[in-house]
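If I may wish for something, please walk me through the protein I am sending here so I can picture the backbone:
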Amino acid sequence: MKKILIMLAAIIITSGAGYSATCEFECPGNPYAAEGISISNITGTNFMAEKIANALIKRQILKDSKGKYKVNLQSYNVTALKKGIFKSLEITGTDTVTDGIYASYVKLKTLCDYNYIEINNKENTATFKEDFGMAYAVQFTESDLNNTMEHSLYQEMIRRVNNIGNAYKMFNIATSKVQIKDDKLLYVMKIAVPLLNIKKELVVETSMKARNGEIIIDQADLMTDFMKIDVDKLASLINYLNPLDFSMKLMKNKDANMQVKDITIKDNKINVSGIVTVDKDVITEQ
């Protein structure tokens, strides 16, 4: 797996936000719930195994992502860990770049105290033996979003919009960027209008919310008045070009279900949180 879920993949290789969405995810029964302290815990071998696992996870993450990472895996005992059974995993990253997605802060934490991923090194696959869930929190700055907007796939979206505008000789988006001011997200576009032979800056103030697990533009207000644009059409256009939604969609993976639960802007930083789940019996390639 790639993007933010490369961290989830790191679990397979090794076999500030709150998390409040666990009510929608049912944890599997934990056969270790009543188990006492194991021999490997007493001797310290489990502690060493956790340290080795943490180092392996971090090394795997850094193969596909840049940034500073901290990894904390907790296991029940060495035997369980070798099978791919572990108690919890928490991964924290700062100033990360993964597949062209920039984020100032990333945190993932398992939802349950029993997680079981079976590794088949011969087939190079991993099987999720139980439903698996992680809560995530991601923080984006203005700089993060503008850097992500340089992604080739985002530039292709701009080209598609321009193809429509050019076909009717209505407009052409020359440049685009975002600004975060006073805890508001502003989408700034330099628009060329061929019929009027002018080039003007179009500023749209937006508010966003999470709906059905996705990020949508709740409201779009035109801050410049050099041209009249239907507000509903404007919101539709910004929804399509929304760099925040673009970032989150790139983080998705065919093997995992990703839901956005909350989105806020505080101290001119955008905070997105939610859950990632993988169904039982899903098989992924390492």
User: Anything to note?
Assistant: The helical segments are 6-14, 39-43, 45-64, 78-83, 142-148, 152-167, 231-241, 243-250.
